[in-house]
Amino acid sequence: MASWSTGTPGSANTSTGLVPGRPGVDVEGDAGYPMEKDANYVAVGAFIIVVVAMAVGFVLWYSGARDGRDYGLYEIYFTGSVSGLDRGSPVRYLGVDVGRVRQLVIDRENPGRVKVIAEIDESTPISSATRASLHLQGVTGLLYVNLRESVGVPSGEPLPRGERYPVIESAVSDFDVLLASLPELVGRASTVLERLGELVSERNVASITDSIGSLQRATAALPETTRAIALLIEEVRATVGEIEGAAASVRSIATDAQPQLSATLAHLAQGADSLAAAAGRIERLAERSEVQLGHFGETGLFEMERLVRETRAAAREFRELSRSLKENPSQILYEPPRAGVEIAP
Fold it and tell me: pLDDT tens, 237-246?
């Protein structure tokens, strides 16, 4: 077998050779350490291939992300904070992705505004009536730019020119309204919390506890109250029955007394007729006996005076009877109470 020696400045000579029966294996040197002749080019080549593949994939991904569409650049100016909007945030037209936010900078002419440069698909119908506003992406807190057509604004005019690109005017969005109303909402929330604290104060809690106790006591006494109401209803029903019976009795009494009332009225009518007949006889007597008036004055004057007195007495009794019946009609049905005799002590 062949062998050779190598020399290294400052070190002893080292003899190398091949091991019999094991081609390609280095012969151990004087120090006893193996040494490889060929480097591991396979690993290096694999690493290079992976890096190249990643670069190609990135290029393909970036090219695919643009969807092969042509984009135009526009300037949008928003007043106030745009927190939640960043590079790469979507630009949507009526909810459809049409581009991305490319840059956000502070407006140099008006530091209170933010200039947003957006790249938008050129096929998007952008006009002078298009308005841009900020909207929330769900509950993430991130924003996106939404484009829509404003009603009542002419769309045939060209877009105004900005510093470098056409300008899409911005509009007040729901997000801006929310930010503007936050102080008021916070104030109302504080007021509600204060009132809630007053509501659950110790005094109110004690009052509520007392009210609940009173309600429980009233609920416990409710069965007795219900029974008392039931008894009262029964008593009312009994009273109504008695009233109905009394009404029936009154109707019966009136029915029974009807003949007596009719008879009494008939007697009164007869008395009146008698008085009228007596007056007629007197008048006829006076007309008929003018010649005998002197004789009547001598012999019948006394009788005439007595007849007049009796007639007056009958008329007086008739008036008293009528007045008494008007004041107390029940005396026709019942006997008048007997007058007693007062006995001196």
Answer: 777 777 777 6
Confidence of residue 21 (pLDDT cuts 50, 70, 90): very low
The DSSP bridge partners found for residue 145 are 91, 134
Give the residue extent of every domain in the chain.
15-65, 70-171, 256-330
Q: Give the range among 113-117, 184-188, 235-239, 268-272 with minimum mean pLDDT.
A: 268-272
Q: What is the dihedral of CA 294, 296, 297, 301, to 10 degrees?
A: -170
Q: What tokens does 173 get?
A: 């969005």
Report pLDDT for 258.
Answer: 64
Say if residues 6 and 20 touch (Cβ distance below 8 Å).
Answer: no
Query: Do 106 and 115 touch, CB atoms closer than 8 A?
Result: yes
Q: Please state the rounded mean pLDDT for residues 125-138.
A: 88
Residue 15, classed as helix, strand or coil, is: strand
Q: Are strands 3-6 and 143-149 parallel, antiparallel or unpaired?
A: unpaired
d(CA 313, CA 278): 13
**What pLDDT does residue 236 have?**
74
DSSP assignment letter at 161:
B
R_g of the chain, CA atoms, integer Å: 66
Cα separation, 314 vs 321, whole angstroms: 10
E strand segments, the chain? 3-6, 14-19, 22-26, 71-79, 90-93, 96-106, 113-121, 130-136, 143-149, 167-168
99 close to 138: Cβ distance less than 8 angstroms: no
Q: Which of 125, 146, 126 is nearest to 136 (CA)?
A: 146
